[in-house]
Design brief:
The chain has 380 residues and is mainly alpha-helical. The chain is 49% helix and 4% strand. It contains 16 helices and six strands. The strands form two sheets. Strands 1-5-4 form a three-stranded mixed sheet. A three-stranded mixed sheet has the order 2-3-6, with no helix packed on it. Helix 2 crosses helix 10, helix 3 crosses helix 10 and helix 4 packs parallel to helix 9.
């Protein structure tokens, strides 16, 4: 296993108890008990971010002043939306099966649409405007160059991810047992990395379906209207323009440097070896109380400039109400809490290690029982 991708040190907090489930293990009296060969990492404690947030507020009460909307977000979104629509128009007569079309979509389009994915992520936390309604409507605007309606559905699932981190059946960021079995190979993981945007789009509707609301219908109507107008008034190459936008979205969630954040954020990259003996495994489980398996990894590299600082992911989960521009200040203010947490040095290296390292894969996620999610909302 490569050691160059991450830096891992002991977490200075009360550690949760973890158990690596196997065919002979189970979680008693749990509706989410692991099935045969389910090797996810199960914990009996609540997610760590709430505990650390309380500790940080106690040590640095001024941190709460960092919370609130960031006015710059709306201007960045408008620039990127304008860029993508302009490029889509400029490529209206460029052959789809040409290097110019593909490279523009991969280098510029995918980066721009990944930026819009993460703009919608920011907006889902009400961090563009004070008004919740303005945030919902602006997210629909940011959605336009993505080509498919996405923003309204994303918000409730993402808020549930925060409130029920790792809760099986609620947190749809978690791979399903079927994914873990079918994609447990180098080729399977390569397939997942290539088409991960489709997994993130379809998995929530299967694992935890939510009802359509008026904002969903407005999102769908606005997006279909935009796509229709693009096809109708985009000249003879209106189809090419729409293909450019949708291809940009697909590549943004495929084998793209910025797409590494999807895997980097919560997959466990230093798991106990699957070839460990029974005695060694028991020892490892006992030692989990000393060195807990990390649930969230941060990244502090240059790609944060293109992705709303989403790499500062421990910081974001600790304080979801702190916008992207102030996450570095949060890190600096509470550096004693973040200094020793695990981090990734490269999102590209994350993708490489995830595919080729046999000890890292779809099963390397921390899960918790549904009972730990009591009192947590399932999204609004």
């Amino acid at each position: 296993m490569s050691s160059s991708t991450i830096t891992t040190t002991t977490v200075n907090s009360k550690p949760p108890v973890y158990q690596e489930a196997s065919s002979s293990d189970s979680i008693p009296n749990s509706p989410y008990a692991p099935k045969e060969d389910d090797l996810f990492f199960w914990t009996y404690t609540e997610e760590p971010h709430r505990t650390r947030r309380q500790a940080i507020i106690k040590a640095h009460p001024e941190v709460t002043k960092l919370c609130g909307p960031e006015p710059l977000t709306k201007y960045v979104v408008m620039v990127v939306v304008t860029l993508q629509i302009s490029l889509a128009y400029m490529l209206r007569n460029t052959p789809i099966l040409s290097w110019r079309f593909f490279l523009t979509a991969y280098i510029i389009g995918a980066t721009a649409n990944q930026n819009l994915f993460l703009a919608i992520h920011e907006i889902s936390h009400n961090l563009a405007f004070k008004s919740p309604l303005k945030n919902r409507l602006f997210a629909i605007f940011a959605n336009l160059p993505i080509g498919v309606p996405y923003s309204a559905a994303f918000r409730p699932y993402h808020l549930t991810h925060h409130k029920s981190l790792g809760v099986d059946g609620l947190d749809t960021d978690l791979p399903t047992a079927l994914e873990a079995v079918l994609l447990d190979s180098v080729l399977g993981k390569a397939f997942f990395c290539t088409f991960q945007i489709l997994f993130y789009a379809l998995r929530p509707m299967i694992v935890h379906p939510m009802p359509l609301t008026r904002i969903h219908l407005l999102n769908i109507f606005a997006q279909l209207t935009f796509d229709f107008l693009l096809l109708r008034h985009g000249g003879g190459g209106g189809v090419n323009s729409l293909v450019y936008l949708i291809l940009s979205s697909f590549l943004a969630g495929s084998l793209h440097p910025c797409a590494g954040h999807f895997i980097a954020e919560h997959y466990v990259f230093d798991p106990p070896s699957s070839t460990t003996s029974t005695t060694a495994t028991a020892t490892a489980n006992a030692n989990a109380a000393a060195v807990p398996i990390p649930e969230t990894y941060s990244y502090y590299g240059p790609l944060n400039l293109l992705t709303y600082n989403v790499g500062l992911h421990n910081e974001h989960h600790d304080f979801p109400a702190v916008p992207w521009t102030r996450l570095p200040r949060l890190h600096a203010l509470a550096k004693e809490f973040y200094r020793d947490l695990p981090r990734h040095e490269s999102w590209v290296a994350v993708l490489w290690q995830f595919v080729w390292d046999r000890e890292v894969g779809m099963r390397c996620r921390v899960k918790r029982r549904g009972a730990l999610g009591k009192g947590e909302e399932k999204g609004k």
